[in-house]
Amino acid sequence: MESPLVSIVCLCYNHERFVEEALLSVLNQTYSNIQIIVVDDCSTDNSVSIIKQVISGHSHKIHFLALKQNLGNCKAFNQGLALATGDFIIDFATDDVMLPDRIEKQVRFFEKQKENVGVVFTDATYINENGELIRNHYDYLFKKKLIDHVPRGNVFRDVLTTYFISSPTMMAKKQVLDTLHGYDEGLVYEDFDFWVRASRDFQFELLDEKTTKVRKSAASMSTGWYRVGDKQLHSTYLVCLKAEKFCRDEQDRDALRWRALYEFKQAVFSHNKIEAKLFAELLKRLGKVPISFFLIQTASYFPLPWPWMRDKYHQLKYS
User: Fold this and answer.
1) How far apart are CA 173 and CA 285, in angstroms?
2) pTM for the full model?
């Protein structure tokens, strides 16, 4: 029986330093039945020229889309997804690096799962701009007591309350993305929305191996979280509105209450007043507003350097 086709949508935006290594890591996979779709989101550096050089000898199995305007992650990914014909999909940023047997291991693992498993994720290694080790994904989460186990199966409540999936490691059935109609193009980032929507109808499973080197750089989107005017925070609010409609019981609503309270606190102490108001309204609508909500609200009235204090607290807790 022929091995299933895997479509890799490789997203590039100003990755001239990393895109060659990233694409070669895809081309050099031990699993051969792959479709490679490279989407450059109107880079302003030399990325397009480098991509053309790398793929010049592989044009028979690589689709290359050089977008004429910058669309952002969600829209750019959907452009590549429209060309995908594989049974499985990988969303791959071209500043990351796949280990050589990543795809083979994930496909073989998928083949052993039940039919309702739609997403397989793995452990990851985080590297800096020079390719040097920063940390391992799950070692860090366990060390910081951010998790005491890795959720699997029906993870809807877990993705609302806990960060545990390293998004770049995911492989999803194309059926999942077709059901969701791709990424929501009204958002500025994709993973939280994907987790919430996909986990409502599909199971998630962990392949407990490191398969990907994920690059953390000064340009990473995650470095901009909770700054004043943070558009990612507003996207998080929009996803929470969707989650409100997906809640099926009081335990689901408890999980969403936790998330709304957390984001309310971050919005208050980062001076994102619009989002603070929106999350406050969501909490009140969900009912059972905790006392901590009112304490946070009261604290915000004191003229203290809350953003600075918040940043220092997070540096101490998570570094």
Assistant:
1) 35
2) 0.93
